[in-house]
Each structure stands twice: as C-alpha cells, then as structure tokens.
Amino acid sequence: MRRALAAFFAMLTVAALLSTSGSALQLPSIEAAATDFRSPNAHLQEMFRAALLDTTTLAEYAPDGTAYVKTGDIPAEWLRDASAQLRPYLFFAKQDPSVRKLLRAILARMAKYIQIDPYANAFTLDYRVWEQKFELDSLAYPVTLAWSYWKTTGDTKIFTPDMEKALEDILNTMEREQDHPRDSHYTEPELADGGKGRPVAYTGMIWTGFRPSDDACYYNYLIPSEMFAVVALGDIADIERNVYRNVILARSADALRDEVQRGIQTYGLVFVPKYGYIYAYEVDGLGHAILTDDANIPSLLSAPYIGYTSKSNVYYQNTRRFLLSDDNPSFYSGRYASGIGSFHTPDHWIWPLALIMQGLTARSQTEKQDVLNELLASDPGDHLLHESFDPNDPKHFTRPNFGWPNALFSEFVMTSFEGKPEIPMGSGSDLEFRSQ
Question: Which of 85, 111, 327, 387 is most exposed, with the fewest beta carbons within 10 Å of its own?
C-alpha cells in the first residue's frame, strides 16, 4: 500500500512539473525515469525530476518533421546547448522509439542549420540565423551528438544526405580557419582589429572568434575548443569511413585532427612552477597565453568529459589543480559553494555548469558528493539550476530558465550516483599517448 501511494504521489509530482512548465513532449521512458527516481534526500529527488524533464518542455516538433529545442528563456536554438540538452536522453534512446525519433529530428534540423551558415552559433525555429558568432565548439557538438547516438543505438538513419553535406561543411570550415588571416573572410563587430581578431601565427590549430560563453576570444586559439575539435574530427573520420564509405573525407578529417593535436601540445601547454605544465585557456601562437578557465563547456576542466584525455592524465591533473584554486582568476568561493564562474556574468558568481563538471571529472566519490551538496544548496527555491548564482546568496541568480545545466545535472546524478555508464563523445583511444 505504501509503495502504491508513493508511486501515485510521484506521478502527481511529475505531472505538476510538466503542467507548470507548459506543454511537454510525451516521452514515456523519460517520464518513467523521473517518476521512478527515489532518494532518501527529498531535495535531490525533486531537483533530479525537474532537471530530467526540463528538455521535454523546451523541445517541439516543427511542421517539416524536424525538432527544435530552445535554450530556455531565449527564443532560439544554440547548436551547443541543444546538443547538451538532449545528451541525457541517449540513456533511454535504445529502448524508447519516441526518444530515438526526437534525437533523429533534432539532428536533422542541426544538419540544415549548418548548411545555412557554418559560422552561426544560434538559429530560430524558422531557420533564420539568430547569432553569427563563430564558435568552434558549435561545429563539434552536433558531430559528437550524432556519433554518440549512433554508437548508443546502432541506428544509422541519422546519416542522411543532409547530414553528409553538413559534415563536409564542418570539415571545410575547420580547414579554412586553420589559416584565418589568409583564407577566411569572416568578421564580427565584437572582435578586435575591425572584426578580424588579434594577430595569430599559424599553429595547425583552428581559429575561433568566440568562446562557448558567446564572449569574444582575446587570443583566438581557444584550447578547450581545440580539444573538442580533435574529438569531433575523430568522430567525423569514423562516420565517413564506416557509414558513408568516403575514405577521402575520412583521411582529411584524420589529418586535420593530427595537426590540431600537435598544435595543442606545442602551443597550448605552459609551465607554471607551482603546478608544472598546464593547459592554457587561450593562445595566439606568438607566445601569449591566458591562464584561466570558463564555466561554459568545452572548458579545460571538461577535457576528460568531452573525450579528449583521461582523468588521470598528468597534464590534466596539473591543470585541474590550478583551475580549482585561488590562483585561477575565474575561481570563486562563498558561503554555499566554491567553483568556476565566467566573465559573461557578475564577478565572483559561480556557474552550476562548472560545479557539475567538477563532479563529472572527480576521481573520488567524496568530491562528487561535495559537489552535489553545493548544487543542492544553489537551489533558489524553484528546484532548477540556473546560469550563475551568488555563492553567498543563491537567491540571486541569472537566467530563470536555462536548459543546459539541468540536463547536465541529470546526467551527473545518473552516472555518479545511479551507476549508469558514461556515454562517450568519441573514442579518444589513440590520443592519450600523444597528450602525455
């Protein structure tokens, strides 16, 4: 009787979450996972259920059969955010045809977006460019989502002619931006030097105009995005070789991947006496570097999560110790939490995205639990995670509706506390020896 009542009230809770968030997509496995989630910590139970269901309230099917997912309180889809918002649903895709249908429809729309403008980072429901901020990670994210979907489900229906053209556009754009001063015509008013960006040397890495925070880069080789590009290029090579049977494009992706990887190891590592060799955040290939991190992903902190290296890699561990210390200018501490923020939001405010990433890359269960406690403490009362918050007063926060951290939180709970295996973004199998 008690179990029946508990299940009944859990269903009521889920229904309330859906009704208060507006119309939601009907995804039986997602709704069941939210309903069935149990924790002796009632606060965690409420926050997980809200987080897991959040994407169902932000996604919708379009008349053309594709699906669109807005970032939250901004009426546009970011290639990065949407990929991250759907990622936790990969855990349910193999068993649930409604989830597979949604992921295929999301990827179909992303393929169209990339063909419209590979330099744009965000689009509207009616296929207009919302922002044309060239962010390297915006090209990598849909690739890794497609690859992860394929490897998780075995379903190759996503690899349409549209997707094939999008992958070719991604590869061509990355190759062009290897030598931005010579080969690119891209400019953007927020960038230095009349929209062209500051001077850079040729390094083999890929020039990018903006960070995942949508802020302009200071030096235009953004090491976390270069790391993510290495992973995505490996995925492209795998897809081209084994699905499209295009050996030429596969070899081109492999070659570019190797060049970017050499650039990271040659220009991206900086010696700091207190920590040893650590990865810089941005470099220009001319001897300048910024040593910090940003909460938005890809970040230096996220290197193992995105599939670039292992948690035990010596350079990563050196970098992680620096990032989670007061020596990092973007690391902040307060009464309720300590973590990494962003220059995109108020000074000394922490981002839940960075806290979650600390948990996902932690090697001890104690650190994971500490991070979880800080995330629960950041709840201002709506049981949702937000863009950033004041670590001394979490009731002060930015963005009331931001889907990305809620999706990532549900992934963190499932993999770190519920025993679900992590879903890789790329094989990364031949990178480790080259990043030591």
Answer: 327
Cα–Cα distance measured from residue 380 to residue 397, given in angstroms and rounded to the nearest whole number? 8
pLDDT at res. 427: 75
Please answer whether residues 350 and 337 qualify as being in contact, where contact means their C-beta atoms are separated by less than 8 angstroms.
Answer: yes
- 312-332 pLDDT per residue, tens: 999 999 999 999 999 999 999
Domains, the chain, with CATH or none:
2-12+23-435 (1.50.10.10)
Which token pair is 275? 């920590």
Facing residues of 390 across strands?
393
Q: How is residue 351 annotated by DSSP? A: P
Give the C-alpha separation, 412 to 342, whole Å: 21
Ramachandran sector of residue 215 (left: φ over 0; alpha: ψ -120 to 50; beta: rest) = beta
How many other CB atoms sit within 10 Å of the CB of residue 69?
25
Sign of CA dihedral 61, 62, 68, 73: negative
Whether the predicted pLDDT of 14 surpasses 50: no
349 pLDDT exceeds 80? yes
Question: What is the C-alpha R_g of the chain?
Answer: 21
* Distance between CA atoms of residues 17 and 15, nearest Å: 5
Model confidence at 212: pLDDT above 80: yes
Q: Distance between CA 108 and CA 163 in Å, rounded?
A: 7
Residues ≥6 apart with Cβ < 8 Å to 302:
224, 357, 360, 361
CB count within 10 Å of CB 50 equals 24
